[in-house]
Amino acid sequence: MHIVVLGSAAGGGYPQWNCNHPNSRRARNGDPAAPMRTQSSIAVSADGERWVLFNASPDLRQQINSNAVLHPHGALRTSPIKAVVLTNADVDHVTGLLTLRESQAFNLYATPRVQQVLAGNSIFNVLNPKFVQRVPMPLNEVLAVRDASGAELGFQVVPFAVPGKVALWLEDAFKGDNFGSVDEDTIALEVRDANGIPQFFYVPGCARMTPELAARIDGAELIFFDGTLYVDDEMIRDGVGVKTGERMGHMSVSGAEGTMAALRDSNVRRKVFIHINTTNPILIADTPERKAVEDNGWEVSFDGMQLEV
Ligand code: MLT
Ligand code: MN
């Protein structure tokens, strides 16, 4: 299977529009150690011709223009993007749907809960229902990903819930500590080939490593994992925000409860951070934090990164 990282940054991108943190300044100054990054999404293809987006970021137009495999070819109005699979309803993962507007056929997969959110917001009616099929994706069921004509695209996904939180813009403070979050709000995807052989995991948001999740990904060939923050309070410490990673539904890269520690003994061949916040020092090639993740066997994804499994 072919995978292209379209965007490696968290919501807001890198540098985020209103961020004057030293990290963000280095990117704006054109520092080669600090390349800019768009918001998180990958494109996946079994045949190298027909592509499926995992999440649709606000930067999708730029991501399509930057990646020739996503350019239209052949007919006058066409696209190699045949389906979109969503892992949540966050702004950084759904607003790219508006870029795919009007009369181009593709299938849109999301949990029933996320489909309900999209259906409740009429701006998404720019996706013409005559062309775009919205397919509810039940948790824990194997799904053969198809194009809008029903043809199989050559791989399967198994959506499963991971610890997380409802999208920021859907939080309900009256619904307690978890703001009304339900399992279907934050999912990960296990990707299998057409024969059901596991290929990789896509986990761009995860609040906590559970024994179930660690066991599930053990032995994987490749995982993409939530790399939002290096330390839980880095936005507060650096004076750019008031929220911890815990409050935002993201476990940290470092620390005793962090991702590196949680997967230190796991048997995963390739471990790749994605969804990296504008404050995270692993964004920058010459930082000790980047060295620490690399010394721990992790890669930091970048826009345009290509992987094969
Ligand atoms: C997140 O991943 O926590 C969200 O994308 C945050 C946001 O919507 O800004
Ligand atoms: Mn996000």
Describe what this molecule looks like in 3D.
The chain has 309 residues and is an alpha/beta fold. The chain has one domain: Ribonuclease Z/Hydroxyacylglutathione hydrolase-like (Metallo-beta-lactamase, Chain A, 4-Layer Sandwich), CATH 3.60.15.10. Helix content is 17%, strand content 24%. The protein contains 9 helices and 14 strands. The strands form 2 sheets. Strands 6-5-4-3-2-1-14 form a 7-stranded mixed beta sheet. Strand 3, helix 2 and strand 4 form a beta-alpha-beta unit. The termini are close together. 46% of the residues are buried. The model has no long low-confidence stretch (mean pLDDT 97). The structure holds D-malate (MLT) and manganese (II) ion. D-malate binds next to helix 3.
CATH class: Alpha Beta
Helix content: 10-25%
String of helices and strands? EHEEHEHEHEEEEEHEHHHEHEE
Strand percentage lies at 15-25%
Total number of domains: 1
Distinct small-molecule ligands in the complex: D-malate, manganese (II) ion
Strand arrangement, major sheet: 6-5-4-3-2-1-14
Classified in CATH, the superfamily is Ribonuclease Z/Hydroxyacylglutathione hydrolase-like
* Number of contiguous helices: 9
Task: For the record, give the distance between the C-alpha atoms at the N and C termini, rounded to a whole number.
Answer: 5 Å
Q: Which descriptor suits the 3D outline?
A: globular
Low-confidence stretches: none
What is the CATH architecture descriptor? 4-Layer Sandwich
**Could you tell me the mean pLDDT?**
97
Report Rg.
18 Å
| Major sheet description | 7 strands, mixed
- Class by alpha and beta content: alpha/beta
